[in-house]
């Protein structure tokens, strides 16, 4: 049995990263040649297979049972059971059909979403190169055990947690843990410091990371659930999910309906005993009245509306895994979003160039090598800029990355920073391998974190001005051409280091001394761009002519000629700024949470309009005295976050703090917990394994479909297919529209129920036979009501609806809406009773006379009442499309589904009355033309009543 703990151990004991290679090998019973097969088999039995375990959750059974976990469905199940007890098999059958329809729609929509989820999951590497008894073998990753020695190289996925035994220029992509796009350098060494933060452990590698550059050998220290990945996966599985706002409202509604239904049933039973009715007839009458207030078609209508919402969201590149998640998006009051990949593209791009003492800009999207060059916002011909080709030659030759085309998209192989330089170079000149022509690489000084630079030595025939100097140190110009091939050193590195290595600067066609004034100008430009969160590299070269080949490496980085700088950033997505502005219009707060540094996070936040330049947090002091700058900062880092109490944290967020930087996974989970604690409905985005607990805790966890990990997708309730923040905002609008539509058809369904209830009550008060039977009530709810309900769920966004009306803060049924239901129910019932009485009286019946429940007159009369209730609901359908706007203002044909639903419902009504099969089972018969006059009059009464009410409402 595997323990759900990380291989790093507890805080109070010596960690693996504190041990020497010899100590680690001894601890895991291994050696440099790896385990032998017998040892590996024993450890496999002890530790189990190297895979992330998943809780057994009886997925399909749970999905099926979830469809019946609804108070309204419970009422229907009870009603069906009672109908069976009293041999009312037709009632029981119809109720059963309604229940199964609801369950089937819900199940298949969620099943379909799950299938889509499976299809977009990324495949992980299934093999690794493992040393067994000194021999390198390709092994299935699930067979890897602690103590194995594994070889990794560029492009490999790391299959287990491990301690580095050897490393050669190793950089790994830790994006799934840290959220940072820049590969992290790791090397074989011993860390002396205790309790090192996870992101700073650079002598170990972890399952789920990938190798960007270099190669290494590591000793496996943890597999399966005993990895860092496993620890987070376990934490995710332990987070409990809460009810959605819609589920809470429907639970309350179901409770209220249950109470009303039971109360009516009890009152009727008591009254029936008073009037000395038979117990059997009394119960059937009570059941009819109780059923009349139960919206049988509502669960199915909600499921269909949400399933159509699912399809609508997919068009907006949002995949909802659960039906209720569709509506919950409209309840969101706070969006907590990642930076990398959601706000930004997760694609480094060169955006600024410093050359000849001036700044140029480059545009373009992603890694596609297409873009324009600008000087002071005006487009220029880059070929006419002196030294620009030289700058890109230095950058592309002093480089280990490459650009590859994968189908219609481009991708970087190697370090993204170097890849961005390659892309910028191709924007300057699209000719393949242009900068490499005639160049022959001789040697290289590799990059190291200590030197902060890299240099390559080429035999170069390219024509450009090189530096040459006399013994007096005076620079002069000298042409290096095809006939005069020279050995050139190309150097790139951190500007603050490179400035001190350069003696000369190339400006235009001249090479001048790089004096302190020029160096200060370069530093100022570097500092300015760094303050904008740009990653800046400097480029220089040197003519090595006159030096012996064995001196090249020593002299390659001395007395350099400064060429210029390139500044790059992970650029924001094009429409994120507009999306954030729309969030404000919708009354939604936006908080950015990232593992990046504060300066970078703030710069991106300013760039997309999340915060304004030089904006300060609202003062929390009552005295009005200015607080310290740290208190006023809109950016809160991980260390500061740990010092804040829950209430202080929430208060800062409400007062404007919207950027959290250098945040650990546990802190992200805490932010989600605090916001929910104080009543916010939050959407949390994430892509890495570290995001999974917070995704599951949030009301709406939104995983990235492209760069997201399997664990984050499993934990989330929604997936962004395009990883774009703007898609969340589109989803919010869709969610709010769906909630508005839910309110509309809740009103519609309960109005029908009110009409049915008052019809029966009026019959009791007037001491006449029941104008409508229980089976006809069910026929209205299942037959003529269900398609209009679906049609209201497809109503487009209504103009003029308050954008600040969050779903979670609105009630699915308001007091005003309840009054409308009562008024309309009385009008409908009056028409139904009038139709019933007129039919009965025309047929020869008189008040107080007996009647036959199976007689033709009674069946025709109840059918007339049924027709009135059905057709007045069609009038109600037209008016229910908006609480305030007339159908003439909305446009009758704007919702074509509503017109179609009316046609279908009328066809069903006629079918029930005129087809013999339905006549028998529903106790109906055709009605006379005079009855149709009452139906038409009742239809107009409902329609015109609502027209007058809406006109008065708009006037007020």
**Structural class label:** alpha+beta
Please report the distance between the alpha carbons of the first and last residues.
70 Å
Q: Ranges with pLDDT <50 over ≥5 residues?
A: 1-5, 112-125, 464-483, 616-632
**Number of DSSP strand runs:** 30
Overall 3D geometry? elongated
How much helical structure, as a percent, in the residues?
40-55%
**Average pLDDT, all residues:** 80
Q: Helical region count?
A: 34
Strand content: 15-25%
Q: Characterize the largest beta sheet: strand count, sense, and whether it forms a barrel.
A: 11 strands, mixed
Using only C-alpha atoms, the radius of gyration works out to 37 Å
Features:
disordered N terminus; 34 helices; 46% helix; alpha+beta; 956 residues; single chain
Describe the 3D structure.
This protein is 46% helix and 18% strand. The chain starts with 20 loop residues before the first helix and ends with a helix.
Short description:
This protein is of the alpha+beta class. Helix 5 runs parallel beside helix 27 (774-784), helix 8 packs antiparallel against helix 9 (279-292) and helix 13 packs antiparallel against helix 14. The relative contact order is 0.09.
Furnish the topology, listing elements before pairings.
Elements: H1 21-27, H2 37-47, H3 59-66, H4 71-85, H5 89-120, E1 127-132, E2 135-140, E3 149-153, E4 161-173, H6 175-178, E5 184-185, E6 204-205, E7 210-222, H7 228-238, H8 245-274, H9 279-292, H10 298-315, E8 318-320, H11 323-328, E9 334-338, H12 339-343, E10 349-355, E11 358-362, E12 373-375, E13 378-380, H13 388-397, E14 402-406, E15 409-413, H14 416-428, E16 440-445, E17 453-460, E18 464-469, E19 475-480, E20 486-493, H15 495-501, E21 502-507, E22 510-513, H16 516-531, E23 535-543, H17 552-555, E24 560-569, H18 576-585, E25 589-593, H19 598-607, H20 629-632, E26 635-637, H21 638-643, H22 646-654, E27 659-661, H23 665-677, E28 682-686, H24 692-697, E29 700-704, H25 710-715, E30 718-720, H26 725-765, H27 774-784, H28 786-792, H29 815-842, H30 856-880, H31 887-890, H32 896-914, H33 916-922, H34 929-955
Parallel strand pairs: 9-25, 9-28, 21-24, 25-27, 26-27, 28-29, 29-30
Antiparallel strand pairs: 1-2, 1-3, 3-7, 4-5, 4-6, 4-7, 8-30, 10-11, 10-24, 11-12, 12-13, 14-15, 16-17, 17-20, 18-19, 20-23, 21-22, 23-24
